[in-house]
Amino acid sequence: xxxxxxTTTVGTFAAPSRRNTELALLVFAVLIPVFAxxxxxxxxxxSVPAGALGYTLGLGLLAGVTHLVVRKWAxxxxxxxxxxxxxxxxxxxxxxxxxxxxxxxxTPQLGGAMAPGQLMWSTLGVAxxxxxxxxxxxxxVLQRYTYISxxxxxxxxxxxxxxxxxxGARIWITIPGVGSLQPGEFAKIIIAIFFAGYLMVKRDAxxxxxxxxMGLYLPRGRDLGPILVIWALSLMILVFExxxxxxxxxxxxxxxxxxxATERTSWIVFGxxxxxxxxxxxxxxxxxxxxxxxxxxxxxxxxNGGVTETAQAMYSFGSGGILGSGLGQGYSRLIGGIAxxxxxxxxxxxxxxxxxxxxxxLLLYGLLIERGIRTALAARDPFGxxxxxxxxxxxxxxxxxxxxxxxxxxPLTGMTMPFLAQGGSSVIANWAxxxxxxxxxxxxxxxxxxPAPSTDAEMTQVVRP
Amino acid sequence: MSELTLTVMRLGFLAVLWLFVIVAVQVIRSDLFxxxxxxxxxxxxxxxxxxxxxxxxxxxxQQPRRQEGGRGGGRQRRGAPTKLVVSEGTLAxxxxxxxGQTITLGRAHDSTIVLDDDYASSRHARIYPDRDGxxxxxxxxxxxGTYLDRTRLTTATPIPLGAPIRIGKTVIELRK
Lengths: 465, 176
Fold this sequence. Notes:
The structure holds 2 protein chains of 2 kinds.
Chain A: H1 19-45, H2 52-73, H3 81-100, H4 115-135, H5 146-158, E1 173-175, E2 179-181, H6 183-208, E3 210-213, E4 216-219, H7 221-241, H8 244-262, H9 265-285, H10 287-297, H11 309-320, H12 345-378, H13 382-407, H14 424-445
Antiparallel strand pairs in A: 1-2, 3-4
Helix pairs in contact in A: 1-2, 1-3, 2-4, 3-4, 3-12, 3-14, 4-14, 5-6, 6-8, 6-13, 6-14, 7-8, 7-9, 8-9, 8-13, 9-10, 11-12, 12-13, 12-14, 13-14
Chain B: H1 3-28, H2 36-45, H3 51-75, E1 83-88, E2 95-97, E3 103-106, E4 113-114, E5 125-129, E6 135-139, E7 147-148, E8 151-152, E9 157-158, E10 165-167, E11 170-175
Parallel strand pairs in B: 3-4
Antiparallel strand pairs in B: 1-2, 1-11, 3-5, 5-6, 6-9, 7-8, 7-10, 10-11
């Protein structure tokens, strides 16, 4: 140690750990949902909701514990991820509670009030987040489980086939008496671990062994194997589980990670062609997908005496305008159907906070994804880089698929808006995802140790290019 | 509730939401200006230029290190390294805790430290503790050799604390 005090090289300036910034933002992120909560109460009943103080203290306590754990176990972690995730989750709880106040869409058949359940799932999610931050000391450990995670992910993706379909899609595992969970949400994390481990080993072969044809690098046939296997698998999910979202997420994630690992544009072209061809092929014979596409193309068609849910969602965006109708004063209950609190929650956000609020929410998602990609840039090891890209890519794809579906850009698919929408599996899985990203960012942002006693200035010199 | 209160709350909510977004963007603004890697490289090449910078940085740099050294010395058996640090090369900054396991170095993907270095062999060297807990480095027949301090290794050699082990452009050392 003492020999290093006479340095001839300049060390790096230690990047500030920014834990205090995180704390300030976290306070902010707890207060904004509380404000929204009070606002909804005042608008609906003309009084501050009874549990306001209790919820404030509860959320504050939860956020405080989370902050202290991060301060202790991941002191150099990114300062933005935790506050943004907290804010989105808190706002989601408020919006679900707000929709619970509408009797028409909170009937026992539709599951009744969902905010208490969601609060419990969120707490479990935060507990899992803390578990990841405390017990996952180094993300490189995950690299050991490359092929185990492949098997696990396949099991999770295939398992729902054996359970009865709910709402037209087989994406739930139902355990009688306990409840049901959506394994696809957890599979996206596990599959990202597999892709990162696999591509780290194979990327040289995929990137370098190729022929050039019409400006594109065509990969060799045998290197094309894995992508075709993944493509076939994602199509099978689409056919047997009739779940457009998971299928898109699964294949899109693979193409993103393949592109990042190999830097070859040809993979993107291949990916788009394959997914486009596959989607069209499946849409010709799968009635569930046909209905979705039909609703997307003809939203104003009369259906059961009214227009489609897609059109209702667009109406609520329209009635919100620029500044929105105000929290608790919208009519998004008219969307009806089975999923106003999960798939369509973005329509409520759009109506009650307007374009201004919706853009802020989308920007928050964008910032969270940007922090993930930034973590990937800063990470030193290739596995960490690929894993961070994969996790934030999965998150980004999910946001795109849901937001695009609700706003009518693409056909609607049954996925949940991360953190915002009602859904236990989703909120738990996304907290775990943020936990892993936070762990990678802690390793990446940790300041480099003091420089070595330089051998450059002595008898031998290192020639640097 | 009066219309006015609700309108004020509606606009107030949007304002605080956007305030949060703007503060968050301010926090990440620092990402736009330089990274640690460029700082490191530039400082080495331009020796006279960053002298003032260096003097400013030196106290900051040394203080935490001294504290760390003091604590480490009090707690641990003297001379027992606790971590392996990559101090130069593309992996600079990587640390591996020494817990009695064998550490393999090389380009092979199953190495403990995967070297992305043109001069490294796939199984380049290994570092392991002998029976007395002394850490030993051994070259595994690499093409370009492993250097301890400035001598090329021919046999398994004990590693003194803080001595640089050089493989290609990567420098590794054991620290307390």
